[in-house]
Automatic annotation (TrEMBL):
The lineage of its organism: Archaea, Methanobacteriati, Methanobacteriota, Stenosarchaea group, Halobacteria. This is alpha-L-rhamnosidase. It catalyses: Hydrolysis of terminal non-reducing alpha-L-rhamnose residues in alpha-L-rhamnosides. Its EC number is 3.2.1.40. GO terms for molecular function: alpha-L-rhamnosidase activity.
Length: 919
């Protein structure tokens, strides 16, 4: 294939032509179109240069890998040190399994960020005040003249806590992620089209809220460094300093929305808003010079770290606007989104107050309910109009479906109202698709997709309303969906690295992780969350092939293993009194959350079954990670031996025949342990929860001869696990091959679960199932109705009902095994690192048809389900298997055909195939 099929889809650090890359050794990735079945890469060559015209083997002035033998479509940069704030260009060619070379790809580019303290010349500034006020908003601005044509311009910007950057009258960026001031994020913003020769103005509205959920306290401050390169080769640097002017913004002091987040009820006085403040020629004589806190780094901002991911915005128009009385409008945006309302007034009256209320539900008389679904968050807004045309738009997002506008002072049309919805930028919000013959399953898939998308903001948020903090278990769950539904990588990588920092900030060498990070309350852990981290890391690596993050995280994974081993009882092998969550409802293990989602789990035992299973699983994943990194045999043996000890303890002391009990007390001794029952000498719970049985099934700890009985017990329980832990229930059903049970669980609108959410009008996954009644009756009242942690059902639908599994890092190998029952047809697409997997299958009596596309450079085991010998198996018109056995000559791309217990397994390479099993 010489000079044919060049690689495409070039990405640097998981982004297309990114700017502001903070990595000194970024990983470069690519794909190639498969021009024939079975095509795969055997080698590559990458060139990196300072300009596109130097991307030839004889002129590349930065890096030339030479030909490297590898099937991995990625390489970590290992050339000469990259300069800060510079643009680089690169190209790649590959060799296939026939040793034929492709053409060179079209050039890609990336730009580095500012790496070191010495790269910064700017100072931290802020509005002078007698003291900091929670919820304060401030403007800063600066005018300057540019004496030439602008070739390239970049702004490096940060604020504590958030900013909105404007240049020459246009909003150009909103940032950045929350962090601690000794690890403050900043963003790189392209200003090429915003700046021009002549007079220019740049400014920002920034906001500081004090400490809250997901927000360390820090102090108010803003920093910016503009680097302008002219067409004639000159460069000018403009920095924040004492020449910048500042003033208070039009936000009026107001109470906080709730006790968790530090955001105020946004009360905005439109009369004092400085119109034109971000344009050249604005009169800022009444403003005051900014206070210079100090040149970076300065207390409290010790370090600035590049954030190389974005949050994007788009407009959502109302589905309906109802006038519920003479002066009150109720707007329905159709679904719960994370966003800010936008209301345009055509004829404002000076000083006229407009009250607005956002919410999740309506009252019986059609107004917005101010409590139901909001977790008692104050979701009011107040706006004081000025004369004439104007637009109300608050600063901070909330979870919103409905908006009530009281006494707007004029008749409002639908085109005057919108919602600016926000979510983390992803390669394709609709990359993962699913259709089938059950409308409820399709609706649940879409519910989960929507929830995961809008539960991803500047970080994975607990909920966009009450708690915007990033909890480890929530992030683990949402990341599982975003990586598989959207091919998202950068937010997951950021989250994993942030929880790593929580380990080193608060817990090293104890081996724990913070339960929420970053946060205003500092050191807080939940044991179950800590021991879940290795699972999250391993899952992320399998999807992303992000070896750099795997290497970075490995020391902390070892620390988690040591933490587990330290708590193993020598006599019984059980993990007992796992330290963590001291003094609260998380002590020694959370089991599930909120408390009513434990469904009566008996936590009054020092050795809890859920904790023990998660600890054994953590050691198993540590062993897998050690193997991936080719760690010494002694390290792997350490994980394996201690895992085996815990698993033996679980089987000996926590399994009672075909059921697992909720916990036991190892301190009572270890005499006369029966083979199939919990010994009388070891006191144990008499409660056998679904949690205690589903987790051993999901992680493969149940003895083979007991699997069917335990699985039947779990399946018979229906839904008795909460949205936070339900992924383990679905994994248990998948591992024990019960797709029909999963379909029943997903579609039963009369029981707890996603179908009930849809049945009662929900549009976002919830924090807790609502439909059953527990005592006390109000336990589930007013839990969050925008909690994305319950969206993990999407990945189970992909895996169990569509039948697609990634079986090696970066989707080098796949399994495509549609279910034997549960549905009669399904189709969909699953994005992977090597390209989308497309599947379309249908069952008709004893016949089964499957169309599948395996991406370039991947191989797959395709299983056509069926328990008995088929009459025939074909691919297209070509026979693969007859009653008397496989055919001798297989078509191109098909390596083998074998009849197994679960069906006919066909090994294939990249390409598209149409299989049919008859009889």
């Amino acid at each position: 294939m010489a000079d044919a099929s060049p690689p495409t889809g070039l990405r640097t650090a998981y982004a297309v032509d990114p700017i502001g890359i903070g990595e000194r050794e970024p990983t470069l990735r690519w794909r190639a179109p498969a021009d024939r079945r079975g095509a795969s890469q055997t080698g590559f060559r990458v060139l990196v240069a300072t300009s596109p015209d130097r991307l030839t083997p004889d002129r590349a002035d930065v890096w030339d890998t030479g030909k490297r033998l590898s099937e991995r479509p990625a390489v970590r940069y290992d050339g000469p040190a990259l300069d800060a704030g510079e643009a680089y260009h690169w190209t790649v060619r590959v060799w296939d399994d026939r040793e034929e070379a492709s053409a060179w790809s079209e050039p890609a580019s990336f730009e580095t960020a500012l790496f070191d303290e010495d790269d910064w010349a700017a100072s931290w500034i802020r509005r002078p005040t007698d003291g900091f006020e929670r919820g304060e908003f401030s403007y800063v601005r600066r005018e300057f003249e540019l004496d030439g044509e602008v070739e390239r311009a970049r702004a490096y910007v940060s604020a504590s806590h958030q900013y909105a950057l404007s240049v020459n009258g246009e909003a150009v960026d909103r940032g950045q992620s929350f962090s601690y001031p000794d690890f403050q994020y900043y963003k790189t913003v392209a200003l090429d089209d915003a700046l021009s020769a002549g007079d220019n103005a740049v400014g920002a509205l920034y906001n500081w809220n004090g400490e809250g959920q997901g927000r360390p306290e820090a102090e108010p401050g803003f920093i910016a460094q503009l680097v302008v390169e002219f067409a004639d080769g000159r460069e000018r640097v403009i920095t924040t300093d004492g020449e910048w002017q500042t003033r208070p913004a039009e936000w009026v002091s107001a109470p906080l929305r709730n006790e968790e987040i530090a955001e105020p009820v946004e009360t905005i006085d439109g009369r004092v808003a400085p119109r034109g403040w971000d344009e050249a020629g604005f009169d800022d004589a009444a403003w005051e010079p900014a206070e210079v806190v100090g040149a970076h780094p300065t207390d409290p901002w010790e370090r600035l770290v590049a954030q190389d991911r974005e949050r994007v915005r788009h407009r959502v128009d109302p589905e309906s606007v109802e006038r519920v009385d003479d002066d009150t409008y109720v707007v329905d945006f159709g679904k719960v989104y994370a966003g800010v309302p936008n209301v345009r007034f055509e004829n404002g009256n000076d000083g006229h107050r407009v009250n607005l209320l956002a919410g999740y539900r309506l009252t019986a008389d059609g107004r917005v309910d101010d409590t139901e679904g909001t977790q008692w968050t104050d979701m009011r807004y107040e706006y004081l109009q000025r004369e004439g045309a104007q637009t109300f738009r608050p600063f901070n997002y909330l979870g919103i479906r409905y908006l009530q506008i009281e006494d707007p002072g004029e008749a409002l049309d639908a085109d005057q109202i919108s919602l600016v919805a926000t979510h983390n930028e992803v390669p394709d919000a609709n990359a993962g698709t699913f259709e089938c013959d059950d409308e409820t399953v399709e609706a649940v898939f879409e519910l989960a997709r929507h929830s995961a998308l809008y539960g991803s903001q500047e970080q994975f948020v607990d909920t966009p309303t009450r708690e915007k903090g990033q909890f480890l278990a929530d992030a683990f769950n949402v990341s599982a969906v975003t990586t598989r539904a959207f091919r998202e990588r950068r937010l997951s990588r950021q989250a994993i690295r942030e929880f790593l920092r929580s380990h080193y900030r608060y817990w090293a060498p104890e081996g724990r992780f913070n339960a929420v990070y970053p946060n205003g309350d500092g050191k807080r852990d939940i044991p179950d969350f800590t021991v879940t981290f290795p699972q999250w890391l391993h899952e992320y690596y399998r999807e992303s092939d992000d070896r750099a993050t795997l290497e970075r995280a490995y020391p902390a994974v070892r620390a988690v293993a040591d933490y587990v081993v330290e708590h193993v009882d020598d006599e019984t092998g059980l993990v007992a009194n796992l330290s963590g969550g001291e003094g609260g409802p998380y002590h020694e293990g959370i089991v599930d959350w909120p408390p009513e989602m434990r469904y009566g789990y008996d936590r009054d035992w020092p050795a809890r079954t859920t904790v023990n299973v998660l600890c054994a699983n953590a050691l198993a994943r540590a062993a897998d990670i050690a193997a991936e990194l080719d760690r010494p045999d002694a390290e792997r043996a350490y994980y394996d031996e201690n895992r085996a000890a815990i698993e033996t303890g679980i089987d000996d002391h926590l399994r009672d025949g075909d059921r697992y009990v909720d916990g036991a007390d190892p301190s009572a001794g270890d005499d006369q342990i029966g083979e199939d029952e919990v010994s009388d000498a070891l006191p144990a719970s008499d409660h056998s929860s679904q949690h205690a049985n589903a987790l051993p099934l999901a992680t493969g700890l149940v003895p083979d001869e007991r699997v069917d009985d335990v699985a039947e017990r779990v399946a018979a329980g229906g839904m008795r696990m909460g949205p936070m832990m339900v992924r383990w229930l679905l994994d248990a059903l998948d591992r024990t091959d019960r797709p029909a049970t999963m379909v029943d669980l997903v579609t039963d609108a009369d029981a707890d679960g996603w179908a009930n959410i849809l049945d009662v009008g929900g549009t976002f996954t919830w924090e807790t199932w609502h439909c059953r009644t527990l005592e006390p009756a109000d336990e589930r009242h007013n839990r969050s109705e925008s909690h994305a942690m319950g969206a993990t059902v999407l990945t189970s639908i992909q895996r169990t009902l569509l039948g697609v599994r990634v079986t090696s890092p970066g989707a080098g190998t796949l399994e495509i095994a549609p279910p034997a029952d549960g549905l009669d047809e399904a189709s969909g697409r699953v994005p992977t690192e090597r390209g989308p997997v497309a599947v379309d299958w249908e069952r008709d009596g004893d016949a089964f048809a499957l169309d599948v596309t395996v991406p370039w450079n991947a191989t797959a085991t395709v299983v056509l389900p069926g328990e008995r010998q088929p009459d025939a198996v074909t691919e297209g018109e070509t026979p693969l298997l007859r009653v008397d056995g496989p055919v001798a000559d297989l078509p191109e791309g098909i390596e083998s055909v074998e009849l197994g217990e679960d069906g006919v397994a066909v090994e294939v390479g990249a390409g598209s195939y149409s299989f049919e099993r008859r009889g």
